[in-house]
Design goal:
Blueprint: E1 9-12, E2 17-20, E3 28-33, H1 44-62, E4 66-71, H2 78-87, H3 91-108, H4 124-136, E5 140-143, E6 146-149, H5 165-171, E7 187-192, E8 207-209, H6 211-223, E9 227-233, H7 237-252, E10 257-263, E11 266-268, E12 271-272, H8 283-288, H9 293-302, E13 309-311, H10 313-335, H11 347-362, H12 367-386, H13 394-409, H14 428-443, H15 447-459, E14 462-467, E15 470-475
Parallel strand pairs: 3-4, 3-9, 9-10, 11-13
Antiparallel strand pairs: 1-2, 5-6, 6-7, 7-8, 11-12, 14-15
Bound molecules: zinc ion.
Length: 476
């Protein structure tokens, strides 16, 4: 960790308050993020969580940590088995297109890849080993071909979710294939297979691992029995993460996770997102409606991860307008004249902006504060330009800091979002409009503006030729 970086503190769900992040190994963070069940294309609720986790890993790196992130891919569960059976294909054949679309979507939203994406079906041996340990310790029992975790043996159960477990007991419904449970609260570790289902051999007969068990086995395999941060959406707290703690800590006798972080729900147009309401949009649905991936990313990152986020088209449009302001500022800065000589008036503004940005992120990922630092800097730069006090080297310093800030936000530079073949994001109509505006500026003898437009077009790979019959442009 660099000396100048502030000590981060995050809201730990287990403590219900913000606590300092104390890594197990100095400067290094082991991060486990629950991944997709590849039974359908990921929806925007999933992407809210994935973008929160992307922000977290980028912010940790900005604050000076090495991050080692593991995200599982759940490629076997009841729904997948049923759907693959109905389609008459193997599990792999069924899940492959959804795994591909998951990674494609990550790229579209500029979500950084985790260090590792282990698949459940490739870690059944580790899961069986974990169940064997629990059986040996007497907290797991075999019933009717399935193995269950005995909640009554775990005095600590409920520590994360703080639920009243007598309520859970009364309200719980028992699935038909889990009638063998001693207590309705017990959860399945190994599920016996029905005839004809895809299955794995185990000491308890053929079957498949339970979902909760997957995450315990894979996180501990790659991050060790104790690691720094475990994240997910709030709907993962109970029972998924509660059960992960029960399995892992009962097996190892050690504290499984130091910091639990959860992102809040996403609503759509003020409603809960649900299959029945038909508002579980996939990324492809939104792109089809003409929404820009860059605006979507910005939209998701501007609401704090622990606040409910209401997804509306108007909200995404506002995000796009916000980006436009950032782009205009960048353009202005890139083309401003460093007329103020050698002495910079911006040194303090730059230092303060960097400190405020880092402090915002370290304060439970306060993105509004981090963005306020950026916009505060922009204001100072604008004043310097307007009063001709932008000094030699200021432009590079400020753009350097913005680039550094963009390692966290990943939206500040429009050049990173241009698709191939696009001239700097400008289509023909926009180029025509800019060329006409340049003509007008020249007629008005506003040469600063006409030069500015020429530079903007040049940057977008468009050159203007002035001919006797008027200007012509071409892409280089
Ligand atoms: Zn999980």
């Amino acid at each position: 960790m660099s000396e100048s970086s502030p000590q981060p503190s995050f809201y730990n769900t287990e403590d219900r308050r913000q606590v300092p992040l104390i890594p197990r190994e100095d400067g290094r963070i082991g991060l486990y993020t629950c991944g997709p069940t590849v039974y359908h294309h990921a929806h925007i609720g999933n992407f809210r969580t994935f973008l929160f986790e992307d922000l977290l890993r980028r912010a940790l790196r900005f604050l000076g940590f090495d991050v080692h992130q593991v995200m599982n891919i759940t490629d076997v569960d009841d729904k997948i088995i049923r759907a693959a059976g109905e389609a008459g294909v193997s599990l792999d054949e069924y899940t492959e297109p959804y795994i591909d679309s998951f990674f494609r979507d990550l790229d579209v939203l500029h979500i950084e890849r985790a260090e590792l994406y282990p698949r459940a079906t490739e870690h059944v041996a580790e899961m069986i080993e974990l169940i064997e340990t629990l059986v040996e310790k007497g907290v797991a029992y075999l019933s009717d071909g399935s193995v269950f975790f005995r909640i009554a043996e775990d005095a600590d159960y409920g520590r994360l979710s703080k639920l009243d477990l007598t309520q859970v007991q009364q309200g719980a419904r028992v699935a038909a294939d889990e009638y063998g449970k001693e207590d309705v609260r017990d959860f399945v570790l190994w599920k016996g297979a029905k005839p004809g289902e895809p299955s794995w051999d185990s000491p308890w007969g053929v079957g498949r691992p339970g979902w909760h068990l997957e995450c315990s086995a894979m996180s501990m395999k790659y991050l060790g029995p104790e690691f720094d941060i475990h994240t997910g959406g709030v709907d993962n707290i109970f029972p998924h993460h509660e059960n992960e703690i029960a399995q892992s800590e009962t097996a190892t006798g050690r504290q499984f996770v130091r910091m639990w972080m959860h992102s809040e729900h996403l609503q759509v147009d003020g409603d809960k997102m649900s299959k029945s309401l038909g508002n579980q949009y996939t990324l492809a649905d939104l792109l089809e409606r003409g929404l820009e991936p860059r605006a979507l990313r910005y939209f998701f990152l501007t609401t704090h991860y622990r606040k409910k986020l209401n997804f509306t088209l108007a909200g995404v449009e506002d995000a796009a307008a916000g980006l436009k302001r950032i782009d205009e500022m960048r353009f202005r800065l890139e083309h401003a004249e460093e007329a103020g000589g050698l002495e910079s008036t911006l040194t303090t503004a730059v230092t303060e902006a960097r400190e405020r940005f880092a402090a915002g992120l370290a304060d439970d990922l306060n993105t509004s504060e981090a963005l306020a630092a950026l916009f505060g800097l922009v204001k100072a730069v604008n004043i310097a330009i307007e009063t001709s006090r932008l000094a030699m080297g200021d432009r590079a310093t400020v753009l350097g800091l913005i680039a550094e800030m963009d390692t966290v936000f990943g939206v500040l530079d429009p050049a990173d979002w241009r698709t191939e073949g696009e001239a700097g994001g400008l289509d023909d109509a926009e180029i025509d409009r800019l060329v006409a505006e340049r003509q007008q500026a020249r007629a008005d003898r506003d040469f600063a503006r006409s030069d500015q437009i020429r530079d903007q077009l040049a940057e977008a790979g468009v050159v203007i030729e002035d001919t006797p019959s008027g200007p012509r442009w071409k892409r280089t």
